Prior knowledge:
The chain is an alpha/beta fold. It has helices at about 5-10, 25, 40-45, 60-65, 80-90, 140-150, 165-175, 200-205, 210-215, and strands spanning about 20, 50-55, 70-75, 100, 115-125, 150-160, 180-185, 220-225. It has an eight-stranded mixed β-sheet, sandwiched between helices.
Amino acid sequence: xxxxxxxxxxxxxxxxxxxxxxxxxxxxxxxxxxxxxxxxxxxxxxxxxxxxxxxxxxxxxxxxxxxxxxxxxxxxxxxxxxxxxxxxxxxxxxxxxxxxxxxxxxxxxxxxxxxxxxxxxxxxxxxxxxxxxxxxxxxxxxxxxxxxxxxxxxxxxxxxxxxxxxxxxxxxxxxxxxxxxxxxxxxxxxxxxxxxxxxxxxxxxxxxxxxxxxxxxxxxxxxxxxxx
Length: 228
């Protein structure tokens, strides 16, 4: 095990805004004490909560929190050494509306209550090309139905990706499931940002480290926004 990972894990333990509950409790079906209490116990306000699922380094979570100080943001990922960067940045910038949760997404209902979340971002998720049933692809309808259990009615789900495969598979599943599309584009920066409201434009123009690389290689970024 690398010393750098150990260092990051140790530093995560010192952050008040990082939560790393015992995964075995979720596996056993034991709900977290945090469920339904994020606003009151963590953020200490009644502002809407947005979650970024599979948040990686937490760049999008932090970027959204900077833009929308009157909303709360939780980055969720199983790899704490990845979101360490976002957690550290949030602390360095004294962002009060950011938190990070380490868990697997199939247990998301153990940590958030019904109607507790208002929006979901899924940014550059793994396309899982061999996942025919969508049980591993976190943008699939299998997962969307799971997210709906913690979302308020009329909430937004945003899927941003560089992967043509993930975009195509996700869209196919959404059409089959009868979900309501608000926006759908195969070229975020080429055409979408010119036809969306300013607040969504600002959110879409958050560019992560790897996204910059993909754009420099000439890749197009795809986006779907659903209302569920």
